[in-house]
Amino acid sequence: MSQHDFDLPPKAAPDVMRRRAELAGKSRDALKQTGLPVCWEDSSEGESGVNVRVDHLADGGVLAE
Question: Nearest-CA neighbor of 60 among 27, 17, 7, 26?
Fold first, then answer.
């Protein structure tokens, strides 16, 4: 059986993900303090506002859209 070599990007280490999650939380808090509406990444209610999310890829980060 031959090995399959898929070009999947590497995921970030657990420690990196923990730090990103902390930064995302602080970012949400700061945005709320300015009066901007903030919606959660996992919200499916169609809320409007700034969506702060954590990218799981190794070269990702915290994104605010």
Answer: 17
Q: Can you give the pTM of this predicted structure?
A: 0.76
Task: Give the residue-averaged pLDDT of 9-15.
Answer: 89
DSSP assignment of the chain equals -PPP---PPPBPPHHHHHHHHHHHHHHHHHHHHTT--EE-TT--S---SEEEEE--BTT--EEE-
Please tell me the distance from the alpha carbon of residue 60 to that of residue 63, in angstroms, as a whole number.
9
Residue 16, pLDDT score = 93
pLDDT reading at 52 higher than 60: yes
Q: Is residue 61 a contact partner of residue 22, using CB atoms and an 8 Å limit? A: no
> What is the signed CA dihedral for 26, 32, 37, 43, rounded to 10 degrees?
40
